[in-house]
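Please predict the structure of the following assembly.
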Amino acid sequence: KNEVEQSPQNLTAQEGEFITINCSYSVGISALHWLQQHPGGGIVSLFMLSSGKKKHGRLIATINIQEKHSSLHITASHPRDSAVYICAAINGGATNKLIFGTGTLLAVQP
Amino acid sequence: NAGVMQNPRHLVRRRGQEARLRCSPMKGHSHVYWYRQLPEEGLKFMVYLQKENIIDESGMPKERFSAEFPKEGPSILRIQQVVRGDSAAYFCASSPLGYGELFFGEGSRLTVL
C-alpha cells in the first residue's frame, strides 16, 4: 500500500464542471504539495500547504493534517486543465524530500 | 529570472555507457533535489544537495548513481554503466530554502537501448 494515495486515478469531466481530487496519506507529514504535470512536460508546483486552505485563481487546495487528507478543487474546469495532478507529502523534517502519490489523470472535454 | 534549466532534455545511451544530466537551479537557489519518474510509475525522491554538500541521498540506488552540486556550475546526476531499467524521466527542482517553495525543471528523459 502506498504511503500517499490519490483518488480517482482517472477523471473525465465536461468543461465547466467542478472537479475534486483527493489525497490521503498514512505517514505523519508536515506539509503537502500539489503538482501539475502535462503529458511529456515538466512539473509545476501549484500549492504547498500545511493547514487550512489556499486559493489561486480557479484552484483551491485544502488540507486536514489530523485527518491525513487533502483535496484539490478546480472550479469552472477548462480543457487546458487537462493534466496529471500529483500530491506529494513532506514526511516531517524541513526538506523537500517528497513522497509522491500516483497521480490523477484529468481530461476536461469541451 | 530564468527557471530551472535541465539538459539535455532527451538523451539516448546504449547499455554500459555513461549518462550525465545537468541541472542549473534558479538564480539565488542553493538547494537542489533530483527525482526520478520511471515509465508507468510515480515520482520518487533520489537526492537532496546544497552547494558542495550532499544532504540526503537515501533515494539513490547504491551503485552506479552519483550526484554533485559544485560551488560553481550546475548540479550533475551521473549514471555509470547504464542499463535498460535506468530509462526514465529525471526531474530536478530547486528551492531558495531547503523547504517550502519548489521549482521544477522540464526534466531529462533518458532512454537506454
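Chain B touches chain A through 25 residues (CB under 8 Å). The two ends of chain B are 37 Å apart (CA to CA).
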